[in-house]
Amino acid sequence: xxxxxxxxxxxxxxxxxxxxxxxxxxxxxxxxxxxxxxxxxxxxxxxxxxxxxxxxxxxxxxxxxxxxxxxxxxxxxxxxxxxxxxxxxxxxxxxxxxxxxxxxxxxxxxxxxxxxxxxxxxxxxxxxxxxxxxxxxxxxxxxxxxxxxxxxxxxxxxxxxxxxxxxxxxxxxxxxxxxxxxxxxxxxxxxxxxxxxxxxxxxxxxxxxxxxxxxxxxxxxxxxxxxxxxxxxxxxxxxxxxxxxxxxxxxxxxxxxxxxxxxxxxxxxxxxxxxxxxxxxxxxxxxxxxxxxxxxxxxxxxxxxxxx
Length: 308
Hints:
- By secondary structure, the chain is an alpha/beta fold.
- The protein contains ten helices and 14 strands.
- The chain has helices spanning 44-51, 73-78, 95-105, 112-121, 137-149, 167-182, 194-200, 218-225, 272-281, 296-307; strands spanning 5-13, 19-28, 33-37, 59-64, 67-68, 80-83, 155-159, 186-190, 203-208, 211-217, 227-234, 250-252, 258-264, 286-293.
- GO terms for molecular function: ATP binding; ATP hydrolysis activity.
């Protein structure tokens, strides 16, 4: 199956001389959730804005559903829904009229049955006659998604979709995004919440200084670039680590009861067996063992530092 989005050597330099994107190339699969991560000013929003037709690239090209975003922009934009960072809605309009208007902007005929389905999927149907200024921030973000889905797009861009939303609403939004993916919609999101990307994404893309540093399946990324930490709980406290264990890169806790050991998951040997044998030789009793996988945040920071 061909990718739903094809990007080749996409570049953007603004009139001020600021280079926002440099030679970005990637394919986005239909029906996946792709999370784009990067520091502020990395180029994430510029990338989305180009694909949505809001910003003109200075180099390269891209296609959505086989339609070039420049030569066949009307067909390309029909396939796209965009949920921007800012909550910009008409405060005195009702939810239904707002969504109905967005559908009309895309040249689609009135279809209140489809809009009802969209609003129900976002738990907004009971609010259909409410004015937008009566809604909470979380509900307004749901309205933005409903507007983006009003014309039945195949691709949905979410630019910081849960910014300023509390933890409960954030998790509810995650469920909404998963349901969209299950219905066949391709979702591309930018986020500063690495927990969000780790929870939802199928693939992770990392952008920094306008360059795409990496695009990888999430599980493979965590395996290849992640590290694990072994924590050994001792039966009796140690005042200091024996000299024979000094070369293992161990860290002893302040109370002397826990020893931490970081190791690379890509290495042929973890060194754990040798380490435990060293404990036995020194007569150090082990009460318990615990391993912890590094988080996506640690992987992200490591890759950005390496790409700097």
